[in-house]
Structure formats: structure tokens, C-alpha cells
């Protein structure tokens, strides 16, 4: 019998480098699809980019935790807290 992990533990020395490589590729792919060049690793600019990113990840079979994706909102829960930023 053989067992294999489907995800890389973040404690592994190569994990950060691999994550950065995948993130950079996804950033490039979204730029090519949308024609927008003002995109960063964090897609907080607009709903269109978030939708396009979700579609790309689905096509490439990249798992995404949907509970961690939040569309444009005026109040966000962070670590169980809702900070009052007013």
C-alpha cells in the first residue's frame, strides 16, 4: 500500500516557495484572462476578479476553501471577531 499527502504542510522547507510559485502563476493567468494589470496575489479589488479566480481554480482542479472567500462587504469577520471600523 502507498499513501500520499494531497497537500503540503506549511512547516516543510519548500512549502513557502511552492506556494509563491503557484500564486505567481495564478496571478499571471488572471491577468491574461481579464486584461487587468493592477492585480496582486490578494484579489480584493472586485467581484469580477474573485469570480474569474474561482473559475480558473475549478478548471485547474486547485482546491479553494469557499468559507474563506468573501465577496465585497462592508463588515468582515476576522478570527471570529467583527471589528467596528467606523
**Percent of residues in β-strands:** under 5%
Helix percent reads 25-40%
Q: How many strands, what sense, and barrel or not for the largest sheet?
A: none
Distance between the termini: 57 Å
Task: Estimate the mean pLDDT confidence.
Answer: 76
SS summary, helix count: 2
Number of strands: 0
Class by SSE composition: mainly alpha
Which series of helices and strands comes N to C?
HH
CA-based gyration radius: 16 Å
The parts where pLDDT drops under 50 for at least 5 residues are none
Shape type: globular
Concise overview:
This protein has 86 residues and is mainly α. The chain is 38% helix and 0% strand. Helix 1 (15-34) crosses helix 2.
Could you characterize the architecture of this molecule?
- This protein is mostly helical.
- It has a domain at 41-86.
- 38% of the residues lie in helices and 0% in strands.
- The longest helix has 20 residues, at 15-34.
- The model has no long low-confidence stretch (mean pLDDT 76).
Amino acid at each position: 500500500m502507498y499513501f500520499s499527502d494531497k497537500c503540503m504542510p506549511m512547516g516543510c522547507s519548500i512549502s513557502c516557495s511552492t506556494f509563491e510559485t503557484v500564486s505567481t502563476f495564478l496571478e499571471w493567468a488572471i491577468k491574461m484572462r481579464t486584461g487587468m494589470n493592477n492585480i496582486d496575489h490578494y484579489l480584493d479589488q472586485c467581484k469580477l476578479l474573485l469570480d474569474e479566480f474561482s473559475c480558473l481554480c475549478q478548471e485547474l482542479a486547485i482546491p479553494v476553501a469557499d468559507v474563506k472567500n468573501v465577496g465585497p462587504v462592508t463588515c468582515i469577520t476576522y478570527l471570529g471577531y467583527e471589528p467596528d471600523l467606523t
